[in-house]
Amino acid sequence: MSRSELPIFATADTYSDGAVDRRHEWASEETGCDLNALRHPGEADAYRGNIENHFGYVRLPVGVAGPVLLRGDHARGEFLVPMATTEGTLVASYSRGMKAITQSGGAVTEVYQNEIHSNATFETADPEAAAALRSWIESNQGVIAETVAEGTRHGRLLRCEYVPLGSRLIVNFVYDPADAMGINMITHVSHGICALIADQHGGLKFHFPSALQGDKKATAYNFQRGRGRSVRAQVLLRREVMNKRLRTSADLIMSYHRNNLEIGHLTGGLGFNMHIANGITALGLATGQDVAYVGESANGLTAIEPQGEDLLFTVTIPSLYVGTVGGGTRLPTHLPCLEILGCTAPGSALKLAEIFAGTCLAGEISVLAAIASDQFVRAHNRLGRNRPEPASTTD
Amino acid sequence: MSRSELPIFATADTYSDGAVDRRHEWASEETGCDLNALRHPGEADAYRGNIENHFGYVRLPVGVAGPVLLRGDHARGEFLVPMATTEGTLVASYSRGMKAITQSGGAVTEVYQNEIHSNATFETADPEAAAALRSWIESNQGVIAETVAEGTRHGRLLRCEYVPLGSRLIVNFVYDPADAMGINMITHVSHGICALIADQHGGLKFHFPSALQGDKKATAYNFQRGRGRSVRAQVLLRREVMNKRLRTSADLIMSYHRNNLEIGHLTGGLGFNMHIANGITALGLATGQDVAYVGESANGLTAIEPQGEDLLFTVTIPSLYVGTVGGGTRLPTHLPCLEILGCTAPGSALKLAEIFAGTCLAGEISVLAAIASDQFVRAHNRLGRNRPEPASTTD
Amino acid sequence: MSRSELPIFATADTYSDGAVDRRHEWASEETGCDLNALRHPGEADAYRGNIENHFGYVRLPVGVAGPVLLRGDHARGEFLVPMATTEGTLVASYSRGMKAITQSGGAVTEVYQNEIHSNATFETADPEAAAALRSWIESNQGVIAETVAEGTRHGRLLRCEYVPLGSRLIVNFVYDPADAMGINMITHVSHGICALIADQHGGLKFHFPSALQGDKKATAYNFQRGRGRSVRAQVLLRREVMNKRLRTSADLIMSYHRNNLEIGHLTGGLGFNMHIANGITALGLATGQDVAYVGESANGLTAIEPQGEDLLFTVTIPSLYVGTVGGGTRLPTHLPCLEILGCTAPGSALKLAEIFAGTCLAGEISVLAAIASDQFVRAHNRLGRNRPEPASTTD
Amino acid sequence: MSRSELPIFATADTYSDGAVDRRHEWASEETGCDLNALRHPGEADAYRGNIENHFGYVRLPVGVAGPVLLRGDHARGEFLVPMATTEGTLVASYSRGMKAITQSGGAVTEVYQNEIHSNATFETADPEAAAALRSWIESNQGVIAETVAEGTRHGRLLRCEYVPLGSRLIVNFVYDPADAMGINMITHVSHGICALIADQHGGLKFHFPSALQGDKKATAYNFQRGRGRSVRAQVLLRREVMNKRLRTSADLIMSYHRNNLEIGHLTGGLGFNMHIANGITALGLATGQDVAYVGESANGLTAIEPQGEDLLFTVTIPSLYVGTVGGGTRLPTHLPCLEILGCTAPGSALKLAEIFAGTCLAGEISVLAAIASDQFVRAHNRLGRNRPEPASTTD
Fold it and tell me: What is the pLDDT of residues A276-316, one digit of tens each?
């Protein structure tokens, strides 16, 4: 099997429907596959800047979960949450947890830190030069601010941090990304700063980005510092909700949780939770986020404390990456999902982050309750793929 | 804002177009949003078992990358690789790496381990009872095998492993999942085994799953043991390919890599790589995989060795989760993407896993080369969203 | 301040008292310090092979803890445990835990794995050569066994394991170290195997040891696999012992433990325990062990389960390094400490390992109980350095 | 074997020679062992507060390494370094590295952070109460400062940090420990603050310490933040020193180092180094430090950069615990070792920390050079225990 390369079409219409059609035709012929299901004419131009070699679309089904009552700093009210997934039971499970939250009086949500960093390594001549470079950067925050302002109207450089390493100086640029998730913005802007610094220092060699930023990977550095939106959600889950809606009890949940906490320490990881990766992925796919960041975001902590007959659940996620502008957020099917959540107006990013936090909290409650009561597998069997007679999925 | 709960429609047509339409209508009214873009009539039934409370679809654009020449145990030939993403430059970058692989003579790919495990905690009366339970399980592999055979025709239980912990016995069920990614299968089957064991021991209490399995999270346990498909891909990247196609050099790449390796040790993670999370996510979204597993899969190792004037690149991913049946793999738009890769026939899962490995290798090469040459950000600027006059995206 | 180098004395008496005296004199003059307290004439020759540039001795005080009743596979009976430390309250605290164990009927101890590994990286020409080398090693276990037998009469090579990495083959040599802690033996023997392999392959380049062995550092690799003696100790701590001797309760301990388990997950480590590092260090210093291994051994798990009104404590330490021959075990003051434990006869190493496990268990119990009851700091104040009127230290 | 408990002698002379003698006699009789080698009459009172149930001493041989030339902020000049160990070749190896440093012009050393923290968990009624408690603490720094001043004349509370977790508030007390290592001081003082807070809040329940402090264990939290003395040492190792003294080359070292860096990422740890645990332990044992902290300190980073024909070595240790007062620092044989280093005057702790850093740097250089040249095992064989005809140990 020898492939011809994808022909390069005229630059002018790279993102036109015509260009997509021609690629679709070429791909169908080249592979001999019927790719018609991937066609969706009429909106190719909307994907300008989001994709290359565009030849079609995959569809992911979206289910609605909730409503979930949030009483956050930014997210306030009852939210219906769109979740895109192909994993059966996921929406039902999260929805169940959301209703449990709502019936318990709602969850408090919070963005406790809002910083995203990118970093570069400058290869100076020796440690003294590294120290001098650090002084230069500290003394030239004005011109650096100008460079930032040229690169973004919304994001702000909060500070520079420094990690000296021999003759290298690692500089950590820490930003408030405003409504964008921010990685593209800070990559663009930080590189501009690096170029400025290099220019001012005789073409000083630099590596950008440096591995310190740990982008999309599980690192102790980002787990400890937080990166992106650092969020927290908590709810006092009422005894009667546990008993009636979740058909379990505080004792069963605590017994399972205690077991998990100890065994979790055998696994050697960063934090402990049941499956926040699922909620972040499904809500992220619905709202146009970059879900590859689940490699970082999956590490959070779920804590549970008995309070009388109730249980206080707290989910902490140090490194969540969401935005309401940029990325896939303005695409034809993603924008409506943000609208459902009321997250399209300027200044909505923290609200969205809190909705993610509340969603993850719901998922933790639901699956902990289900497993504690051994309902977990039975739910899978009832709703899972290719099982006969699926029951109602709304509870 | 007070929400009404989603009305429960008749069970019989939960997955019918009519049911999806009614939910769509309800959601539009309830939220006051125009959700028409999410409509795609005519195939709701195909999503039976993949989603609940289904009210529409999101579309992700798919680009084609490659071709990439693989010389694996299972994946052999030139592959065009469909990647679904909304992150600009991703497809172009991976495609560039694929062509570099192909021009260098292709990549060798391998599934070096193929095991997925699930585990349960049995709460016996005391350590002696835990030891006795272990003996019972070891002596009753026949009846356990029958339980497995009732639950799956394809997956196989390879062995049971044991971690005693006080009066608890953690039992690790290790399977070959055949063509399925496998988590649903092993969850179902393992729970059946647990129920059998509990029945045979007077209703012995158990927790299933136990936290040991580290599902969808970064854990040392799975990073060290491997879980799912453990894959490797390597290529001897030719000097002329580095110089001409990638416009960089072996020295520049090694200089950046060495810098990354050291700084990577400051971050405290599991393995080191540039961005395999991106490739796994985009190829996974195209082919119907559960991309929430990126929380585990993102931890791999990219190694580079000079060999004369060339560079030998090796990517190792211990915990990759892919299947060619189950999950979203048979859905209307995902099946064609598997067809493009020739991965629909029985026995294709390891082939698909190798294509993932080769894809990730391409991504590592491309981004290392680009950053080593400082082309990285410039490429972002050229192709990134909302930049004027994008150039050709096929190289 | 410019130093003269230490004069080189005649080789013949490097380890004689005369040589130590001359170095002592030289050091006193060179530094202008009164070093007389470090003198201990008459036994310099006993330290042959344990130290270089020997000019004196430090003294560490040894306290006796216990007795602790162990009902292990190897350690059976009541043990008085010598602990060398300069940290006030340590011996008293461990002793308190030991008595609690004894009063509860004793602890069960176990060496559940007994393997120590060392590894080398062979730099072959390409991945095919790496595979061929692996085959060669697998086919030549006979000649490798001969090399091992030449290097040690006691240790045994159990197996070779392989980690291919590009054109490199990492070979993991796994041994039973017999009564020795073993690192010197396996270093010597493994290097001999490497030299043999290199000779048989035209002077093949190798790096020995490879970083994979993670010697004396905290690594997921060794935490997950275990290295050295992998030990476990457990005791059912009786309610009356908690109430009367430890002046606390099961509820207070569990409340503190649960809190620790959750917060421990915020720290991101390997396992969770209170302070096993202290017990391993103090018992190791008394018995001539290499306490730098605490860098590895400090990572263990302390688990607690309610059983009726009692608590089942289990301590698991995957990587403990102890021996009863070699290292400092036969030195004038260390040998008597091994004699106190009945660990000088051939075949005593596993017994000693179990005593370490039981000792660590005692330390966990004591400190958990103390903190749970907030006695911790008060005990520190009463026994700590420079506090007036220290009370009896035997309880 | 049934043991009698150690008899409780009169409180008045717990730390007298007579009391030690009586315990020694009792232990000899009880165990039937000849423990005479552990006797050292005449100084028992010096160990008051350092040990309980004191019945004798172990002796560790001390070798002198160096001289090492340091050009630090605090440590300036050539130092002879006392190292206590029973591991043959250790002193010779470190000494070799020290001379290489000195011949290369000396190492620059630095304490880049000097903070030690302890933390408590307050169990408030609910998250609002946790927030209120935080406010109270922030508003009452004055009374807290008074409590600190009552508990220590030297240490200073730098700040309080807060980690809310559900209804719990974890408060992190961060100190400058002055010349003491500090754990006893901050434990004492922090507990006093906790008691004050509890008193002011109706007997509020607290757990102290909380697991967050990760004491003596490897945690991402302390590796990322640093705890104790955070130190750095670096040297430009000259080509001729590598060639002539170390009998290796920059290329050989870099080849081995690059190999280690990649393979180190397979192990999953915190930082990468060869064996800083050895240097910290041996120098710590000579100078009266608490070497159980090697469980934390062993995690550091060794970085190497080619600079022309030379190599720049940098060792970074985030969590080193040393003091020049308190602990074992004033004991009869340890004080002279501090005197050798000129570290007994007030304000010497940072100087001592820098000497530790320089020592660890020497150890890294020596062992990297030896292994790179495959001299490592040969040196072990020549100097190791029970080998005939040991050569001179001074080089």
Answer: 999 999 999 999 999 999 999 999 999 999 999 999 999 99
Find out whether C35 and D334 touch, Cβ atoms under 8 Å: no
Is the separation of the CB atoms in C231 and C74 below 8 Å? no
Q: Are D285 and C220 within 8 A, CB to CB?
A: no
- Inform me whether the pLDDT recorded for B394 exceeds 50: no
DSSP 3-state of B309: coil
- Determine the residue type at B267: T
What does the alpha-carbon distance between residue A395 and residue B14 come to, in Å, rounded to a whole number?
13
How many CB pairs below 8 Å do chains A and C form together?
39
Give the integer Cα–Cα distance in Å for D13 and C392: 10
A60 touching B (Cβ < 8 Å): yes
Q: Please list the rounded mean pLDDT of every run of 10 residues in chain D (395 residues).
A: 60 79 95 96 94 97 97 98 97 97 98 97 95 97 96 95 97 97 95 95 94 95 97 98 94 95 96 98 98 96 97 98 97 98 97 98 97 71 46 33
Report the sign of the C-alpha dihedral through residues C147, C152, C158, C160, in that order. negative
* Close Cβ partners of C255 (under 8 Å, ≥ 6 residues apart): C372, D207
| Best CA proximity match to C302, nearest among B166, D162, A351 | B166
3-state secondary structure of D384: coil
Secondary structure letter of residue A101 according to DSSP: H
Beta strands in C239-374 (DSSP E): 301-307, 310-320
Question: Alpha helices, DSSP H only, in A140-245?
Answer: 141-151, 183-200, 220-225, 239-240
Q: Are B64 and A6 an interchain contact pair (Cβ–Cβ within 8 Å)?
A: yes
Task: Give Cα separations from A363 to A68, A81, A314, B191, D361 (angstroms).
Answer: 12, 12, 12, 21, 49
The values of phi and psi at residue A243, to 5°, are -70, -45
The Cα–Cα gap between B128 and A340 comes to 56
DSSP letter at A309 equals: T
DSSP C254-279: HHHHHHHHHHHHHH-BSSB-S-HHHH
Residues 6+ apart with CB under 8 A from B394: A5, A6, A7, A8, A52, A53, B92, B95
- Find the catalytic residue in B87, B150, B339, B374: B87
Q: Is the pLDDT of residue C301 over 50?
A: yes
The C-alpha atoms of residue A65 and residue A95 are separated, in whole angstroms, by: 4
SS3 content of chain B, % helix, strand, coil (to 5): 45, 25, 30
DSSP E strands in B100-155: the ranges are 108-123
Q: What is the mean pLDDT of residues A16-44?
A: 95
Looking at the complex, report in whole angstroms how far the Cα of residue B35 sits from the nearest Cα belonging to chain A.
6
Q: Note the pTM of the prediction, 2 decimals.
A: 0.95
Nearest by Cα to B352 from B288, B275, B301, B274: B288
Q: How many CA atoms lie within 13 A of A63 on its CB side?
A: 30
C346 vs C180: CA distance, rounded Å: 10
The DSSP H or E segment spanning C95 is helix C90-103
ipTM confidence: 0.94
| Segments of chain B assigned E as strands | 54-71, 76-84, 108-123, 156-165, 168-176, 206-207, 228-237, 301-307, 310-320
pLDDT of A17 > 70? The answer is yes
Over residues C336-347, the mean pLDDT reads 98
Q: Is A391 on the interface with C (CB under 8 A)?
A: no
Six-digit token string for B103: 């021009």
For every residue of C219-235, DSSP letters joined together read BHHHHHH--EEEEEEEE
DSSP type of residue B211: G
| Contact state of D63 with C84 under an 8 Å Cβ cutoff | no
C-beta of residue A210 within 8 angstroms of C-beta of residue B376: no
